[in-house]
Specification:
The protein is mainly alpha-helical and about 270 residues long. Helix content is about 75%, strand content about 0%. The protein contains eleven helices and no strands. α1 runs antiparallel to α2 and α8 packs antiparallel against α9. The longest helix is centred in the last third of the chain and has 30 residues. The chain is globular, with a radius of gyration of 18 Å. It starts with a helix and ends with a helix. The mean pLDDT is about 90.
Amino acid sequence: MPIFHAIILAIVQGATEFIPVSSSAHLILIPYLLGWPDQGLAFDVATHVGTLLAALLYFRNDVAELISGFFSGRLPPGGDFDPRKLGWGIIAGTIPAGLFGLAFHHLAETQARNPLLIAGTSIGFGLLLFVADRMGRKWREIKDVGIIAGVVIGAAQALALVPGTSRSGITITAALLLGFSRPAAARFSFLLLIPVSGLAALFEGWKLFKAGVPQGALVPMVVGIAVSAAVGYLVIDWLLAWLRRQSLTPFVVYRVLLGLAILGILYSRAS
């Protein structure tokens, strides 16, 4: 893979993993539209490791307090959540996505990588995000996340295996419908990404280890990890600041326009 391709795709992964527009859809569409060869499993694993590192670095204090407080039962001084309650919420949210991923990952990696499906999910789940953003009561905060909320949001997260759905988009949508504020919905979505992405990276990494890293893929992989991690960190910081002041409507508009553009391209190529 040319380094230029690796940089562009890593920027795309780092940006779209956290904003609610679907990173998997963009990583499929960009090579498709530009006529680039598929980047392959090795590079996808590398960029997902990069965004996982971005989340771990950005939420390092939350993660440390969660781990320490979960096992000790102590509340962090000045903290805004109960580590055990939130910890059980994250565990409960990880289980549905993990089970669904194990059962249907092959289908998601083959038949689901379809531009027409991506167009439909981008528009449909984008409009659902709009409804949730407008109708959600937004009174609950991160301290209110528990097992029930975790299960519901985690079950929604399982849908993100379908490209175009957006992992962050569907989890934020579910959290908003449960009454969480925009910043709390995004924060829990990103914390929930850590175990889910970690398990996915281990699973895909094991497959890659058995198959062997393709020749010439190591340098693009290193570039992919570094660039996606740096971009992802900046995007998390920007999005959380944005959601304290603004709505999610611009992302909804982007998703609908993206879906319509894909449909237009498919129609023009078919005619």
